[in-house]
């Protein structure tokens, strides 16, 4: 039975559960599985070192484990989770989008973006999305299923490996770079897959070799505003950043743009965000996709500024990356500038997000849609 704040969705008919993987399990659970396979429990730590620290995923690379045990341990804890359908790159190859095929044929996407001073990876937490936001390519496709903890984690592990191997150029140095930021802003609503997303955050931030040893402060979790889950997330003790996909300051419009608003209204969502900010001591991000003649009017900017004035918040304005055949498109430059100015007049910090990846179907769900 789900806990309060956890939304569940029926699996597609005939769906097969993802194979159990080391990244799904705590260190104690890994030792139990290894012992159950007839091996010494300390082999679990060796496997964790190979997976998280050495990024050595092929059994023949595990020279500290007897050859006779490698296949058995790989089957028990390191099965194949996903394969690359294709990579596509732009921005002089510093932005790389990957389309993954999961064990059951489901398609998901991730994006690795290397800047001169940082590296950000945008990952998926669900295959598709059930939130039904009409301007979002993923929302148009609907929900296929939740990703497992390991399927979420493996996207980042593969991104770390790609950086180590110099597959994504850029930055101030040559070759390898360290992953700086992870954003749960790919396919899906993270807080609708609550248990697995929380598990993924723990695997990503557990010290090596139990996890990747990344900083919680470098992780951003996005939500359209699932209020009970937001309040539960505030009690986890994380130092992650919470990003609220608001997209409208008034309930009348937000009911249309973000249908879950018919259940939890703008002020309820923001109150939950301030609760998270208070408990985490982290400023909240408000994500706002600027859509021409829909939500970019000056009076809406003023209303948003009044809602956020004096709060621990930063606004990210997102020029809409339109999806093929959609009636929604990006705001005019002059309307975008006026929106920024209106927020600044209220003393609200605001930036316009760098629009990377437009020429490679950058909006989440676009690449997967071309393969359906």
Automatic annotation (TrEMBL):
Region listing for Disordered, in residue ranges: 1-22
Catalytic activity as recorded in UniProt: adenosine(2503) in 23S rRNA + 2 reduced [2Fe-2S]-[ferredoxin] + 2 S-adenosyl-L-methionine = 2-methyladenosine(2503) in 23S rRNA + 5'-deoxyadenosine + L-methionine + 2 oxidized [2Fe-2S]-[ferredoxin] + S-adenosyl-L-homocysteine; adenosine(37) in tRNA + 2 reduced [2Fe-2S]-[ferredoxin] + 2 S-adenosyl-L-methionine = 2-methyladenosine(37) in tRNA + 5'-deoxyadenosine + L-methionine + 2 oxidized [2Fe-2S]-[ferredoxin] + S-adenosyl-L-homocysteine
Radical SAM core domain sequence ranges: 115-359
Compartments (UniProt record): Cytoplasm
Transmembrane segments: none
Active-site residue list: 109 (proton acceptor), 364 (s-methylcysteine intermediate)
Record keywords: 4Fe-4S, Cytoplasm, Disulfide bond, Iron, Iron-sulfur, Metal-binding, Methyltransferase, rRNA processing, S-adenosyl-L-methionine, Transferase, tRNA processing
EC number: 2.1.1.192
Broad class of enzyme this protein falls into: transferase
Ligand binding (S-adenosyl-L-methionine): 188-189, 222, 245-247, 321
GO biological process per UniProt: rRNA base methylation; tRNA methylation
Cofactor note as given: Binds 1 [4Fe-4S] cluster. The cluster is coordinated with 3 cysteines and an exchangeable S-adenosyl-L-methionine.
Binding residues for [4Fe-4S] cluster: 129, 133, 136
GO cellular component terms, A-Z: cytoplasm
Main subcellular location: cytoplasm
PROSITE patterns: RADICAL_SAM
Cofactor: [4Fe-4S] cluster
Superkingdom classification of source: Bacteria
GO function terms (MF aspect): 4 iron, 4 sulfur cluster binding; metal ion binding; rRNA (adenine(2503)-C2-)-methyltransferase activity; rRNA binding; tRNA (adenine(37)-C2)-methyltransferase activity; tRNA binding
Further remark: Reaction proceeds by a ping-pong mechanism involving intermediate methylation of a conserved cysteine residue.
PANTHER family from the UniProt entry: 23S RRNA METHYLTRANSFERASE (PTHR30544), RADICAL SAM CORE DOMAIN-CONTAINING PROTEIN (PTHR30544:SF5)
Homology family: Belongs to the radical SAM superfamily. RlmN family.
Function summary: Specifically methylates position 2 of adenine 2503 in 23S rRNA and position 2 of adenine 37 in tRNAs.
Full protein name: Probable dual-specificity RNA methyltransferase RlmN
Recorded name of the encoding gene: rlmN
């Amino acid at each position: 039975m789900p806990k309060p704040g956890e939304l569940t969705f029926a699996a597609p008919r005939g769906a097969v559960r993802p194979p159990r993987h080391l990244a799904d399990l705590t260190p104690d659970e890994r030792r139990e599985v290894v012992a159950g396979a007839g091996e010494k429990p300390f082999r679990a730590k060796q496997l964790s070192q190979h997976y998280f620290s050495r990024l050595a995923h092929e059994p023949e690379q595990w020279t500290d484990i007897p050859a006779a045990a490698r296949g058995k341990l790989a089957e028990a804890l390191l099965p194949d989770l996903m394969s690359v359908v294709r990579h596509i790159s732009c921005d002089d190859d510093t932005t790389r989008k990957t389309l993954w095929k999961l064990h059951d044929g489901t398609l998901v996407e991730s994006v690795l973006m290397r800047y001169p001073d940082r590296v950000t990876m945008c990952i998926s937490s669900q295959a598709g999305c059930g939130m039904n936001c009409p301007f979002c390519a993923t929302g148009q496709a609907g929900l296929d299923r939740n990703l497992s903890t390991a399927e979420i984690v493996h996207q980042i592990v593969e991104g770390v490996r790609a950086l180590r191997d110099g597959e994504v150029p850029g930055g101030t140095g040559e070759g390898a770079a360290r992953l700086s930021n992870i954003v749960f802003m790919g396919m899906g609503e993270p807080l609708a897959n609550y248990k697995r997303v929380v598990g993924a955050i723990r695997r990503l931030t557990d010290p090596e070799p139990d996890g990747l040893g990344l900083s919680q402060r470098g992780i951003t979790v996005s939500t359209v505003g699932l209020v009970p889950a937001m309040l539960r997330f505030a009690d986890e003790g994380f130092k992650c950043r919470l990003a609220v996909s608001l997209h409208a300051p008034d309930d009348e419009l937000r009911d249309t743009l973000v249908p879950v608003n018919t259940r939890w209204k703008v002020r309820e969502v923001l109150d939950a965000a301030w609760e998270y900010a208070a408990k985490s001591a982290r400023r909240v991000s408000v994500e706002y996709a600027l859509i021409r003649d829909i939500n970019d009017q000056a009076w809406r900017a003023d209303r948003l500024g009044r809602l956020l004035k004096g709060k621990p918040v930063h606004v990210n304005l997102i020029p809409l990356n339109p999806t093929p055949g959609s009636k929604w498109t990006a705001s005019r430059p002059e309307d975008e500038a006026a929106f920024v100015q209106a927020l600044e007049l209220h003393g609200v910090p605001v930036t316009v997000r760098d629009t990377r990846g437009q020429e490679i179907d950058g909006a989440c769900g676009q690449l997967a849609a071309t393969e359906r």
